[in-house]
Amino acid sequence: MAVVRLRAPLSELAGGRRELELEGATVGEVLRALEREHPAVAGWILDERGQIREHINVFVNREYGREETAVGPDDRLHVLPAISGG
Amino acid sequence: MTELLVGTKKGLFALRGEPGGTFDIAARAFAGEPVEFAMRDPRTGRYYASVTSAFYGPKIFVTDDPAGEWEQADGATLPEGGDVALKRIWTIVPGEEDGLLYAGGDPGVLFESRDAGRSWELNMPFWEQPTRPDWNPGAGGMCLHSIATWPGDPSRLAMAISAVGVWLSDDAGRTWRHGNQGLVPRYIPEEEREADTITLCVHNLHRHPTSPERLFMQFHGGVYRSDDAGETWIDIGTDTGLPSDFGFPMVVDPDDPDNAYVIPLTADLDRVTPDGRVRVYETRDAGASWAARGDGLPGEDAYLTILRQAFGRSGAGSNMELYFGATSGDVFGSGDAGGTWFTAAKHLPPVYSVRVA
Description:
heterodimer; A: alpha+beta; B: 4-stranded antiparallel sheet
């Protein structure tokens, strides 16, 4: 299973867990698995369209990932807010 | 003691004080996050806030104590798997049944809650309006910003969207129809106005609570009144004493159906207070004339922007309290229905909304 690393406030919504092991063949599937396991996360990373919100970045290992990016069992996903704002 | 809920670009501020004095910051919530709107339901005392995180999207939160924990409400989302996402919640309004609330958002969507705001459902008849593919957003998005209930009658609703006009329902939101007759969209070429009956940029809409057939509207260039519950509209912004008929905020006096307030801005391409003076304008004759109420407000070199939801009131009549905030971070108040004004707070983040708790 892939390892997903979260920061606050997402980690708080995931029961205080900063690291989780989740099933899924793509980034989108892994994030949906995260929502099923921790429903409070629903709507925070993926929007209603199933798209990663505009100002959130998901990295698969060290590469920028999108919803359809393939994920292997040994991969690590980092979910980070983008460096943006004003 | 008056409590103000001030939604800002960087969080919600609960301010407490007495009219005429400086208000203290009693609580700050959602630090760093844009709080588009916050209100307290007078029926329950519960607080509601709409927060649009740049990272995590729009959410509605609920609490009984603004200084305590806020709980995220469920269901304020669009149908999953579609091609549209909710962008923002613009307003939250108590309904006319116990536990009933409404929320309006972008893209032109209405939500209903029947459990005092813990969970919300999309109003599907409005979501499925057949003309929706032809709707266009205003500069601030396709915002459903005004929801006017009919006191004592939950079946009758009016609401307004920028830029999709006025919508009326007589069956609690199961069916909807336009209420746009008389509105003149000067931003559309004259020869095309009759053909385009949808692109109507309403900026604000309020129903009078004791004479509910009367509504006031701030339009995108125009101020209007309706005496037939929003079916038709009468121009009350032309040659009636306003320095400009462009603006966003609006308040009505619950004691007097002829009494309303607006805060004009210079024009759509120059959204600041006219002539460098901050003035609220009041009508006491249903819009036949307007008079400036600026005693105590900045009178020179003051080019402020007051946004749509940044004007609130409590009470009624000559003792009505009025409060408005600007994107400058200033909040101004009046304890005598606009007769005199004071500065309630300074140096806040840009103010998005002001409501008296």
